Amino acid sequence: MSYTDGMLKDGALKGKTILVTGGGTGLGKSMGLYFLKLGANLIITSRKLDVLQNTAKEMEVSTGGKVLPLACDVREIDQVEKMWTDAVAHFGKVDVVLNNAAGNFISPTERLSSNAFNTVLDIVLKGTSNVTLTAGKYWIKEKQAGTFLNIVTTYAWTGSGYVVPSAAAKAGVLAMTRSLAVEWAKYKIRSNAIAPGPFPTEGAWSRLLPGDLVKKFDPAKKVPVGRVGDHQELANIAAYLVSDYSAYVNGEVITIDGGEWLMGAGEFNNLDAIPQEMWDMMEASRGKKA
Ligand code: NAP
User: Fold this and answer.
1) What is residue 211's predicted lDDT score, i.e. its pLDDT?
2) Where are the alpha helices (DSSP H) in the chain?
3) Is the pTM higher than 0.90?
4) For position 241, what pLDDT does the model report?
5) What distance in angstroms lies between residue 35's CA and the mean position of ligand 1's atoms?
6) What pLDDT was estimated at residue 203?
7) How far, in Å, from the CA of 103 to the mean position of ligand 1?
8) Which residue lies with its CA nearest to atom 33 of ligand 1?
9) Could you tell me which of 269, 224, 256 has the C-alpha nearest to residue 153?
10) What is the model's pLDDT at position 289?
11) Based on CB atoms within 10 Å of each CB, which residue in 109, 149, 174, 261 is the most buried?
């Protein structure tokens, strides 16, 4: 067994229909693929229909499952409502929403126009609230159980310079996750989140570590376990949180970052840089004083 293996039993998501925003690329694609392997039906949605169609075809061929690609800009409530209606019409129901779509780029905050700032807020926070409201209202009206899983990030609670619109928006998504976990539990709707640390994806790497930055700021160096994440590790947690195995987990955020955010937080964690000989000297000098 290895962390690159699937964790849940075959058929663990059989009978579930799962909608993944941003499901044509990156982590959304990897999580969606694992849901399919576990027997779910899948809807993938984002702005680029050609990307979605290619991914859907690739996924169907490799798993034999059913994938519906639907174009939708999550910032536009009319498009979200149409996408939801089409998804329900196609599969008869949707049981799970994975809010994964996001936009982000690095910049000193004072260089951002209000338009640039708002674009990230709109995709991440407003996009998530548009999809959440649409699905939640439908589930409540139809008296149908539902599950939300929202992808945030560890700087949703620490904040982070140079990605301030993203930090503000993800903090909002986390607050929404915890709020609705309580408010909508009475309707049999659960809400949870995952906070990933660095996972290599074309989208995140090209926007957040463009060009040589990826060599200069090797993300693995900031992670105590000494590596970046493998997509299957994230897919395993996501599949658990959308499955019935996690029926009693509600309002939780699971961090999967190899200890990265804690490494930055602990005041003395950078003492890793002290060599053993220096520790020996310090110990010896303490011994003399005692
Ligand atoms: P990605 O491949 O760029 O995924 C982002 C997805 O969002 C794309 O499929 C994109 O598709 C979609 N999207 C963007 N704007 C949209 C809009 N207005 N409407 C609908 N869909 C839209 O990057 P990723 O790394 O896999 O990121 C996935 C999630 O993980 C994000 O929530 C990100 O914040 C989170 N995350 C990633 C990392 C990491 O290290 N990779 C770390 C922490 C958190 P279109 O362009 O076709 O719209």
Assistant:
1) 79
2) 26-37, 49-63, 77-91, 114-121, 127-141, 155-158, 164-183, 202-208, 213-216, 231-242, 260-265, 276-289
3) yes
4) 98
5) 18
6) 84
7) 6
8) 102
9) 256
10) 63
11) 149
Count of beta carbons in the 10 Å neighbourhood of residue 215: 8
Q: Rg of the Cα trace of the chain?
A: 21
Q: Using a 6 Å cutoff on CB, does residue 199 contact ligand 1?
A: yes
Q: CA 229, 234, 239 angle in degrees (round to 5)?
A: 165
Shortest-distance atom of ligand 1 to CA 75: 18
Between the CA of 42 and the centroid of ligand 1 the distance, in Å, is 17
Residues 6+ apart with CB under 8 A from 15: 39
Per-residue pLDDT at 288? 67
Which residue in 195, 239, 256 sits closest to 32, CA to CA? 239
Six-digit token string for 194: 């995952």
Residue length of the chain: 290
Q: Residues 34, 155, 187, 248: which is the catalytic one?
A: 155
Active site residue 155: yes
Q: Do the strands 67-71 and 96-99 form a parallel or antiparallel pair, or are they unpaired?
A: unpaired
Output the residue whose Cα is nearest ligand 1's atom 17: 73
